[in-house]
Amino acid sequence: MESMVIQGEQRLSGSVRIGGAKNSALPIMASTLLGKGSCRLTNVPQVMDVSTMARLLTHLGATVESDEDRFSISVNEISSCRAPYELVKTMRASVMVLGPLVARYGEAVVALPGGCAIGARPINLHLAALERMGAEITIEHGNVHARAKGRLRGARIYFDVSTVTGTENIMMAACLAEGTTVIENAAREPEIADVAQFLIKRGARIAGAGTDVITIEGVAALRGADHQIIPDRIETGTYLVAGAITKGDVTVAHCRPEHSEGLLAKLSEAGADLAIEKETIRIRATQRLRSVDLKTLPYPGFPTDMQAQVMALMAIAHGPSMITETVFESRFIHVLELQRMGADIRIDGNHAVITGVERLSGAPVMASDLRASACLILAGLAAEGETRVARVYHLDRGYERLDTKLAGLGARISRTKERP
Ligand code: EPU
Fold this sequence. Notes:
By secondary structure, this protein is of the alpha/beta class. It has two domains: about 1-15 and about 285-415, Enolpyruvate transferase domain (UDP-n-acetylglucosamine1-carboxyvinyl-transferase, Chain), CATH 3.65.10.10; about 20-230, UDP-n-acetylglucosamine1-carboxyvinyl-transferase, Chain (Alpha-beta prism), CATH 3.65.10.10. Helices cover about 30% and strands about 25% of the residues. The protein has helices spanning about 20-30, 50-60, 85-90, 100-105, 125-130, 165-175, 190-200, 235-245, 260-270, 305-315, 335-340, 370-380, 395-400, 400-410; strands spanning about 1-5, 15, 40, 65, 70-75, 80-85, 105-110, 135-140, 145, 155-160, 180-185, 205, 215, 225-230, 250-255, 275, 280-285, 295, 320-325, 345-350, 350-355, 365, 385-390, 410-415. α1 packs parallel to α2, α4 (about 100-105) packs parallel to α6 and α5 (about 125-130) runs parallel beside α6 (about 165-175). It is elongated, with a radius of gyration of 21 Å. Uridine-diphosphate-2(N-acetylglucosaminyl) butyric acid binds near residues 23, 120, 122, 161 and 371.
């Protein structure tokens, strides 16, 4: 296993190019299962989760070719309708093959994902919605087994909780259902609108993606299409925080500022100087930022996927702040590691009360999930001395060459094999 070693207190400056959105690429790749024809995708991020999805699709019978950020996927026939536990347990997003498989082939066996470091993360809403569309669902030997006699039926689906992959799974399945499906209280994340754009190019009839009511009129078949994945708004946010936390001057290029409004508002409130253009954001922070309170919410609220990174920033901001996590019940594991670096943070239920300290001190710390890893790297960039972040495989699941990109901005960061 590898660690990331950072010598902190380097002011970052320069420009960094943002890659494609992981959470858009994954459902779009899963959705290639919905029809024949070649699908050519560009701006696909080169991260482990994308490789895992490519392996899963290949296992199911897809032909997957890739060259850097370009993927070509065709699924003329499947050789299996089974997503095995070995793949699902390394990546929960594997459950997104469930909707497409049952819609096109009438059967899917997908391992139940099980526990996760950030919360329980059940998929009950995905399953209940597929049942309403006529699928018969059973849980056997740790697998979800979904069967449909003929085509799925369009249905009215109301999600009690806003669910991103749930909305995507059902939107994808509904493309091939007989009749109209209406998803109410649909999640509104930009990635969902991106998936819909791709499906529409393939011949799907979808209206309202990106709003909380999505209407899908089922069609008999989808064709191949080309698509460019939208930029990653969480990668964007992570580099903005890197600029702010090192009192630097960083320009984030090839991003979509309109997808990061919640974060930009908070950075501005904290005193960062932001210059926003159509596809770039420049952040400058010459002095210590002010503390701000925030609450994570489904889009367009403040993203839970940026909570840990902003907590690192608040750990050295001026004054107290309160961060409330409302999306996942246990997404505070990074707090214990930040405390090892000298942060003053108290947890009370789903609230974290942070009293900013003058400086953090470098320490060996352990990453527990993808965004917690980013938080610890950011803390290390600001901290005095050396920080060693262990278990960086979490980071590689969702950040494209984070160490190389940070080094390009002047960070002193390197990878090393973990000491025994
Ligand atoms: N939920 C249920 N039942 C369900 C589905 C969800 O109770 O059937 C609950 C969850 O337990 C959670 C809330 O609903 O409390 C929201 O979860 P959601 O389903 O929206 O999360 P997800 O679809 O599993 C995606 C992203 C996550 C991101 C969340 C929230 C992908 C592949 N993953 O997960 O990304 O945190 O939405 O925005 O799109 C990450 O990239 O680091 C990451 C974890």
